Amino acid sequence: MSKTLDDLRSVLFEALEAVKSGTMDLDKARAINEIGRTLVDTAKVEVDYLRATDGSQSSFIEPPADPSKLPPGVTRHLLK
Q: Does 60 reside within a domain?
């Protein structure tokens, strides 16, 4: 199963809610935050690589299956 930016966002919001409710200690939340930051940094490297190689898609930042189903006001951008 591949993991995407949406998956990371879900985990981070779950951690935020757990900290707010007091069900997760701050050390664990900080560890999750640091891992999330590292994943985002690797995604930035991937985007740079796609730019340098004229790539068009990332496995981490997945486009929707049907671009016509994007929510109003959301635009899909492809690297060229």
A: no
